[in-house]
Amino acid sequence: MSSHRGADPRTAAALRFARRAASGPRAPLPRALNEECGVFGLIGNDGPAASRVAMGLHALQHRGQEAAGICTFDGEQFYAERNLGLVIPHFTQAHVLEQLEGQAGIGHTRYSTTGAPNRRNVQPFYADLDIGGVALAHNGNLTNARVLRQRLIQQGRIFHTTSDSELFLKLIAQSRAPQITDRVREALGVVEGAYGLLVLSQDCLIGVRDPVGIRPLVLGRLNGAPVLASETCAFDLIGAEFERDIEPGEMVICSADGTVKSVRIFPAPAHPRPCIFELIYFARPNSFIDGQSVYALRKRLGQRLAMESPVEADLVAPIPDSGIAAAIGYAAQARLDYDMALIRGHYAGRTFIEPTQEMRELGVARKLSANKGVVDGKRITLIDDSLVRGTTSKKITAMLREAGAREVHFRIACPPIVWPDYYGIDTPDRDELMAATHTIDQMRDAIGADSLAFLSLDGIYDALDKGPRGEAPAFTDHCFTGDYPTSLADQDSGADCRPSGTLSYLKERTA
Ligand SMILES: O=P(O)(O)OC[C@H]1O[C@H](OP(=O)(O)OP(=O)(O)O)[C@H](O)[C@@H]1O
Ligand SMILES: NC(=O)CC[C@H](N)C(=O)O
Ligand SMILES: [Mg+2]
């Protein structure tokens, strides 16, 4: 897999941007900072797997709220249920769980990055192959999906979905290798991009992480049975014990008797590049990544931010939820009171899935309300984990001023996001990223704040104990730097932007 490191990433990204602008509108990517998908699987469970997979998925709900699915295997047959919407209440209904028989199962909770949020794109994907049934669940995004898809369609292959993840299944199906593990290995030799991938066959449960480890995947045990998940928080909910992170480029083959065999699909990378955004925003604060508490790391980002960008204020307040840990760290470091200037409604989702700017703004208002009793007459330092389009920050500044805030200072616990993501985060195109089109002073004015500052790139590496960033950074931080850790074949080729790569495609209802 080639890397964009070395070439001038900014030039490469700017070229892609210009090419896309010239090639006309692409399928709309309506959201702000999207979550990612979550995957969960177990084999050799001491009872029906489905209810535990459902609980694991529920713990991973913050990674994807559009759809969820479970596929199980009872030793003879596979069973599947896929549904648009949240894991609960659908997957806690007795009649749904009862028909998902068997002691092995995988599940997926989706936030779409390639392919619309419709029914046919809901995972796990399943196919009856010559070697038996195969189900798969993918977190991440492939960067050569369009190119590969066009090639396969020209060869006469049929795609049932418009998702990049179906490519795994197609490639596994067309391999002639007798073993599922070799078929997966062959498929992984062809795809490029980011994946935490689960494959359930009649023989085993396979887990694989992409060559540089962009997306996470962890291994645990439940009464001796192997469990795989995107994040450790899923283990906590079902009472499983964390065993270890799957290594970048590693495949684990888990069997019903509890054995876990490790195979290297790609050589151990000299410099793994896990996505820095897992730590900043995606992961649940009670998860551990690479042995480190996400919550503690976020507090450290806040502390460092306070050292870099202090400001006189009466109190420090988070933008809930993902700004909370950084705000606690900031307040402690600045020796200022920490308080809740904003109250979050419990019935609003994590992010803004509405397709228009007007709806997104309504979304912020629905989710967050000013706490007048705390903010009236105060100078407030607001802490958020990230700023993408600026929708949240604009709306909140106005809300707080209306509630009587005397000054509103914004501090963001990561550097400005100036480059799009192609690995499953799905940040918007550059022209929609506020920091890509405004200077910091222009952003401050657009938000209406009294001051605005971001954590520096060196600061984030130092705070995470991985500094200095240098030539071999410990993370992929392409959103800040344009330094993409893989080739971006689809972007570079200008491949057809329509989701199917064909002249027309089936547009399904999304609810
Ligand atoms: O600048 P913007 O375009 O508004 O996007 C940035 C906001 O989006 C995210 O919050 P989100 O609501 O997705 O999740 P959260 O509730 O976990 O903070 C992030 O935490 C920022 O608050
Ligand atoms: N965010 C993700 O991990 C999405 C997985 C896959 N690319 C999809 O769009 O369904
Ligand atoms: Mg937020």
From TrEMBL:
Gene Ontology molecular-function annotations: amidophosphoribosyltransferase activity; magnesium ion binding
Catalytic residues identified in the record: C37 (nucleophile)
Record: residues binding Mg(2+): S322, D384, D385
Record-listed E.C. numbers: 2.4.2.14
Biological processes, Gene Ontology terms: 'de novo' IMP biosynthetic process; purine nucleobase biosynthetic process
Pfam families, sorted: GATase_6
Catalyzed reactions: 5-phospho-beta-D-ribosylamine + L-glutamate + diphosphate = 5-phospho-alpha-D-ribose 1-diphosphate + L-glutamine + H2O
Coiled coil: none
Cofactor entry: Mg(2+)
Cofactor note (record): Binds 1 Mg(2+) ion per subunit.
InterPro entries, per database record: GATase_2_dom (IPR017932), Ntn_hydrolases_N (IPR029055), PRTase-like (IPR029057), PRTase_dom (IPR000836), PurF (IPR005854), PurF_N (IPR035584)
UniProt KW keywords: Glutamine amidotransferase, Glycosyltransferase, Magnesium, Metal-binding, Purine biosynthesis, Transferase
Pathway: Purine metabolism; IMP biosynthesis via de novo pathway; N(1)-(5-phospho-D-ribosyl)glycinamide from 5-phospho-alpha-D-ribose 1-diphosphate: step 1/2
Glutamine amidotransferase type-2 domain mapped to chain residues: 37-257
PANTHER family assigned to the protein according to its UniProt record, in alphabetical order: AMIDOPHOSPHORIBOSYLTRANSFERASE
Family named by the database record: In the C-terminal section; belongs to the purine/pyrimidine phosphoribosyltransferase family.
NCBIfam families recorded: purF (TIGR01134)
Primary role: Catalyzes the formation of phosphoribosylamine from phosphoribosylpyrophosphate (PRPP) and glutamine.
Name recorded for this polypeptide: Amidophosphoribosyltransferase
Gene: purF
